[in-house]
Design brief:
With 239 residues, the protein is of the alpha+beta class. 22% of the residues lie in helices and 29% in strands. The chain folds into two domains: 10-64, RNA-binding S4 domain (Structural Genomics Hypothetical 15.5 Kd Protein In mrcA-pckA Intergenic Region, Chain A, Roll), CATH 3.10.290; 70-238, 2-Layer Sandwich (Pseudouridine synthase), CATH 3.30.2350. The protein binds uracil.
Length: 239
Protein backbone atom coordinates (compact mmCIF):
# COMPACT_ATOMS: atom_id res chain seq x y z
CA UNK A 1 0.00 0.00 0.00
CA UNK A 2 1.44 3.35 -1.02
CA UNK A 3 1.28 5.95 1.72
CA UNK A 4 3.75 8.56 0.56
CA UNK A 5 2.58 12.01 -0.40
CA UNK A 6 3.01 13.58 -3.84
CA UNK A 7 6.26 15.45 -4.41
CA UNK A 8 5.92 19.11 -3.51
CA UNK A 9 7.38 20.54 -6.71
CA UNK A 10 5.87 23.89 -7.54
CA UNK A 11 6.66 27.13 -9.37
CA UNK A 12 8.35 29.81 -7.28
CA UNK A 13 5.63 32.40 -8.01
CA UNK A 14 2.90 29.99 -6.84
CA UNK A 15 4.87 29.15 -3.72
CA UNK A 16 5.50 32.80 -2.73
CA UNK A 17 1.94 33.82 -3.55
CA UNK A 18 0.47 31.02 -1.40
CA UNK A 19 3.02 31.41 1.37
CA UNK A 20 2.61 35.18 1.78
CA UNK A 21 -1.00 35.34 0.60
CA UNK A 22 -0.24 37.97 -2.02
CA UNK A 23 -1.13 38.07 -5.70
CA UNK A 24 1.19 36.88 -8.44
CA UNK A 25 1.70 40.39 -9.87
CA UNK A 26 3.30 41.41 -6.57
CA UNK A 27 5.47 38.32 -6.65
CA UNK A 28 6.64 39.24 -10.17
CA UNK A 29 7.69 42.64 -8.88
CA UNK A 30 9.64 41.07 -6.01
CA UNK A 31 11.34 38.79 -8.49
CA UNK A 32 12.22 41.69 -10.78
CA UNK A 33 13.74 43.48 -7.77
CA UNK A 34 15.88 40.37 -7.10
CA UNK A 35 14.52 40.07 -3.58
CA UNK A 36 13.87 36.33 -3.79
CA UNK A 37 16.68 33.78 -3.64
CA UNK A 38 16.66 30.03 -4.12
CA UNK A 39 19.53 28.14 -2.56
CA UNK A 40 21.39 31.43 -2.09
CA UNK A 41 21.00 32.67 -5.68
CA UNK A 42 18.73 35.63 -6.46
CA UNK A 43 16.34 34.77 -9.28
CA UNK A 44 13.87 36.63 -11.46
CA UNK A 45 12.22 33.78 -13.38
CA UNK A 46 8.68 33.33 -12.05
CA UNK A 47 8.46 29.87 -13.63
CA UNK A 48 11.45 28.44 -11.80
CA UNK A 49 10.44 25.20 -10.11
CA UNK A 50 11.33 24.49 -6.49
CA UNK A 51 10.79 21.39 -4.36
CA UNK A 52 10.26 20.84 -0.65
CA UNK A 53 13.99 21.00 0.02
CA UNK A 54 14.80 24.23 -1.88
CA UNK A 55 16.05 26.95 0.46
CA UNK A 56 13.91 30.02 -0.27
CA UNK A 57 14.48 33.52 1.11
CA UNK A 58 12.84 36.93 0.68
CA UNK A 59 15.05 39.91 1.55
CA UNK A 60 17.31 37.41 3.30
CA UNK A 61 14.48 36.07 5.49
CA UNK A 62 14.00 32.32 5.27
CA UNK A 63 10.61 31.23 3.90
CA UNK A 64 11.43 27.54 3.51
CA UNK A 65 14.41 25.53 4.75
CA UNK A 66 13.35 21.91 4.99
CA UNK A 67 16.00 19.25 5.27
CA UNK A 68 15.41 15.75 3.95
CA UNK A 69 14.98 13.23 6.77
CA UNK A 70 15.35 9.47 6.52
CA UNK A 71 14.65 7.16 9.47
CA UNK A 72 14.49 3.44 10.08
CA UNK A 73 12.33 2.13 12.90
CA UNK A 74 12.01 -1.25 14.55
CA UNK A 75 8.22 -1.15 14.55
CA UNK A 76 6.52 -2.93 17.43
CA UNK A 77 3.43 -5.06 16.86
CA UNK A 78 0.27 -3.27 18.04
CA UNK A 79 1.29 0.14 16.72
CA UNK A 80 -0.31 1.45 13.55
CA UNK A 81 1.74 2.43 10.45
CA UNK A 82 -0.08 5.70 9.96
CA UNK A 83 0.44 9.31 10.85
CA UNK A 84 -2.93 9.57 12.67
CA UNK A 85 -5.31 7.01 14.15
CA UNK A 86 -8.33 7.31 16.39
CA UNK A 87 -7.86 3.99 18.16
CA UNK A 88 -4.21 2.97 18.28
CA UNK A 89 -0.85 4.52 18.93
CA UNK A 90 0.90 5.35 15.65
CA UNK A 91 4.55 4.99 14.68
CA UNK A 92 4.73 8.81 14.65
CA UNK A 93 3.73 8.79 18.35
CA UNK A 94 6.93 6.83 19.01
CA UNK A 95 9.08 9.71 17.70
CA UNK A 96 9.62 13.05 19.37
CA UNK A 97 7.36 15.80 18.00
CA UNK A 98 10.04 17.74 16.12
CA UNK A 99 11.30 14.63 14.31
CA UNK A 100 7.95 13.15 13.38
CA UNK A 101 6.02 16.24 12.34
CA UNK A 102 6.54 16.09 8.56
CA UNK A 103 7.30 12.41 7.99
CA UNK A 104 5.40 9.85 5.97
CA UNK A 105 5.68 6.08 5.88
CA UNK A 106 7.41 4.16 3.10
CA UNK A 107 5.36 0.98 2.75
CA UNK A 108 3.08 0.16 5.64
CA UNK A 109 3.26 -2.82 7.94
CA UNK A 110 0.03 -4.26 9.38
CA UNK A 111 -0.95 -3.42 12.94
CA UNK A 112 0.32 -6.76 14.24
CA UNK A 113 3.44 -6.87 12.09
CA UNK A 114 6.82 -5.72 13.37
CA UNK A 115 10.28 -4.87 12.07
CA UNK A 116 11.86 -2.57 9.53
CA UNK A 117 9.83 0.52 8.73
CA UNK A 118 11.20 3.49 6.78
CA UNK A 119 10.00 7.04 7.36
CA UNK A 120 10.92 10.15 5.40
CA UNK A 121 9.79 13.59 4.28
CA UNK A 122 11.34 13.00 0.82
CA UNK A 123 8.50 11.89 -1.40
CA UNK A 124 10.72 11.30 -4.43
CA UNK A 125 12.80 8.83 -2.43
CA UNK A 126 9.77 6.96 -1.08
CA UNK A 127 8.20 6.78 -4.53
CA UNK A 128 11.34 5.16 -5.93
CA UNK A 129 11.26 2.49 -3.24
CA UNK A 130 7.57 1.79 -3.71
CA UNK A 131 7.39 1.95 -7.54
CA UNK A 132 6.36 -1.55 -8.69
CA UNK A 133 8.69 -1.32 -11.71
CA UNK A 134 11.70 -1.00 -9.38
CA UNK A 135 10.86 -4.39 -7.82
CA UNK A 136 12.48 -3.58 -4.48
CA UNK A 137 12.48 -6.83 -2.50
CA UNK A 138 11.02 -6.87 1.02
CA UNK A 139 11.96 -9.80 3.21
CA UNK A 140 9.83 -11.03 6.12
CA UNK A 141 10.31 -13.63 8.83
CA UNK A 142 6.98 -15.39 9.31
CA UNK A 143 5.94 -17.65 12.19
CA UNK A 144 3.05 -20.02 11.44
CA UNK A 145 0.57 -21.96 13.50
CA UNK A 146 1.01 -25.20 11.54
CA UNK A 147 4.11 -26.88 10.13
CA UNK A 148 5.42 -25.95 6.67
CA UNK A 149 6.12 -28.25 3.74
CA UNK A 150 7.89 -27.94 0.37
CA UNK A 151 4.48 -27.41 -1.30
CA UNK A 152 4.53 -23.85 0.03
CA UNK A 153 7.74 -23.03 -1.85
CA UNK A 154 6.28 -23.76 -5.29
CA UNK A 155 2.87 -22.23 -4.50
CA UNK A 156 4.49 -18.95 -3.43
CA UNK A 157 6.76 -18.97 -6.47
CA UNK A 158 4.01 -19.75 -8.98
CA UNK A 159 1.79 -16.98 -7.62
CA UNK A 160 -1.76 -16.97 -6.27
CA UNK A 161 -4.85 -15.49 -7.87
CA UNK A 162 -6.59 -12.86 -5.71
CA UNK A 163 -10.12 -12.48 -7.08
CA UNK A 164 -10.84 -9.27 -5.18
CA UNK A 165 -8.08 -7.38 -7.01
CA UNK A 166 -8.15 -9.69 -10.06
CA UNK A 167 -4.38 -10.17 -9.95
CA UNK A 168 -1.95 -13.04 -9.66
CA UNK A 169 0.83 -12.42 -7.17
CA UNK A 170 4.36 -12.08 -8.56
CA UNK A 171 6.85 -14.88 -7.88
CA UNK A 172 7.65 -14.84 -4.15
CA UNK A 173 10.62 -16.61 -2.59
CA UNK A 174 9.84 -18.78 0.42
CA UNK A 175 12.66 -20.36 2.41
CA UNK A 176 11.84 -22.77 5.20
CA UNK A 177 13.84 -21.82 8.30
CA UNK A 178 12.31 -24.44 10.62
CA UNK A 179 9.03 -26.39 10.88
CA UNK A 180 6.99 -23.29 11.79
CA UNK A 181 9.18 -20.45 10.48
CA UNK A 182 9.74 -19.21 6.91
CA UNK A 183 11.47 -16.25 5.28
CA UNK A 184 9.36 -14.76 2.50
CA UNK A 185 10.60 -12.21 -0.05
CA UNK A 186 8.13 -10.13 -2.05
CA UNK A 187 8.62 -7.51 -4.74
CA UNK A 188 5.10 -6.12 -4.31
CA UNK A 189 2.87 -5.24 -1.40
CA UNK A 190 -0.74 -6.29 -1.79
CA UNK A 191 -3.17 -5.83 1.09
CA UNK A 192 -2.33 -8.39 3.84
CA UNK A 193 -0.46 -10.27 1.12
CA UNK A 194 1.54 -12.69 3.24
CA UNK A 195 -1.35 -13.54 5.55
CA UNK A 196 -3.61 -14.16 2.59
CA UNK A 197 -1.01 -16.36 0.87
CA UNK A 198 -0.62 -18.56 3.95
CA UNK A 199 -4.40 -18.43 4.25
CA UNK A 200 -4.55 -20.57 1.10
CA UNK A 201 -2.98 -23.33 3.17
CA UNK A 202 -5.31 -22.56 6.09
CA UNK A 203 -2.20 -21.81 8.08
CA UNK A 204 -2.60 -18.69 10.25
CA UNK A 205 0.34 -16.30 10.60
CA UNK A 206 1.27 -15.88 14.27
CA UNK A 207 4.02 -13.30 13.77
CA UNK A 208 5.33 -11.31 10.84
CA UNK A 209 8.56 -9.35 11.08
CA UNK A 210 10.15 -7.35 8.22
CA UNK A 211 13.88 -8.02 8.04
CA UNK A 212 14.92 -5.89 5.07
CA UNK A 213 13.89 -3.59 2.25
CA UNK A 214 16.17 -4.06 -0.76
CA UNK A 215 19.75 -4.26 0.55
CA UNK A 216 18.84 -2.28 3.69
CA UNK A 217 18.68 -4.49 6.79
CA UNK A 218 16.96 -3.70 10.07
CA UNK A 219 19.73 -2.58 12.44
CA UNK A 220 19.95 -5.31 15.10
CA UNK A 221 20.99 -2.67 17.67
CA UNK A 222 17.56 -1.02 17.45
CA UNK A 223 15.35 -2.15 20.30
CA UNK A 224 11.65 -2.64 19.58
CA UNK A 225 10.09 0.80 19.10
CA UNK A 226 13.43 2.55 18.57
CA UNK A 227 14.45 4.40 15.44
CA UNK A 228 17.54 6.06 14.04
CA UNK A 229 18.51 8.27 11.12
CA UNK A 230 19.84 6.54 8.03
CA UNK A 231 23.41 7.21 6.97
CA UNK A 232 23.77 8.75 3.52
CA UNK A 233 25.09 5.47 2.05
CA UNK A 234 21.99 3.72 3.38
CA UNK A 235 19.75 6.35 1.78
CA UNK A 236 21.34 5.75 -1.62
CA UNK A 237 21.25 1.96 -1.20
CA UNK A 238 17.47 1.90 -1.60
CA UNK A 239 16.50 5.18 -3.29
N1 LIG B 1 2.02 -8.98 4.36
C1 LIG B 1 1.10 -8.96 5.37
O1 LIG B 1 0.15 -9.74 5.40
N2 LIG B 1 1.27 -8.04 6.35
C2 LIG B 1 2.30 -7.16 6.38
O2 LIG B 1 2.40 -6.34 7.31
C3 LIG B 1 3.24 -7.19 5.32
C4 LIG B 1 3.07 -8.12 4.34
Amino acid sequence: MITERRSKRTRIDRFISAHLEINRRDVKLMLAQKRIAINGIAINDSQQVIDEFSHVTLDGQVLQANKPKYLMMNKPAGVVSATKDEQHRTVIDLLDKATGSDLHIVGRLDLNSSGLLLLTNDSRWSRKIMAPENKVEKRYRVTLEKPLSDAYISAFYEGMYFAYEDITTKPAKLEIVSDYVADVSLTEGRYHQIKRMFGRFRNPVLALHRLSIGPLLLDPRLAVGESRELQSEEVSLVG
